[in-house]
Amino acid sequence: xxxxxxxxxKAIRDAFIDLLSEQEYDEITIQDILNKGxxxxxxxxxxxxxxxxxxxxxxxxFRQKIEQLLNDRLTADVQMLEIIMDxxxxxxxxxxxxxxxxxxxxxxxxxLYQDMFGMLxxxxxxxxxxxTDDMPLPKNLDYQATIMATMFMTTLKYYFEQDLxxxxxxxxxxxxxIDIAKI
Length: 183
Fold this sequence. Notes:
Blueprint: H1 3-22, H2 30-37, H3 41-47, H4 51-75, H5 78-94, H6 96-103, H7 112-130, H8 141-161, H9 170-182
Helix pairs in contact: 1-2, 1-6, 4-7, 7-8
């Protein structure tokens, strides 16, 4: 792809992320994006049919990154898992601003937060099914997957809003919460 096209897409997308960080999705106009990104209307419409199309393309790109990270987790052997998880934690932290901004888009057509929740839930179910050799499949697997996805998404949101990386001892923190709740 031509370097000018790459720069144009980046300017438009960066402007959109900046605007989402400042205001609600419904309040953002195409003109706001054009002004912030220093792009003219014809150029914008050359690549995007409108604000919803821009949001959709960005969410699709983001979903692909997350799907790859989750797939890496499923296919990792035990020795490589910690290294992969550390690398993924860093990769996710680097895109936290975009993630937080895109999570603000909650329309019938676009909802990255809910999409990621569903992806994490499904990933947990697949992971549990892969581990049936070690332990029996839980009867309440859907519930456990829902709780795991909830905990993970809430953790991401909490740490990223604090501008902090995801701690490496996250499973220990979760175990400590369970232990406290037992008391």
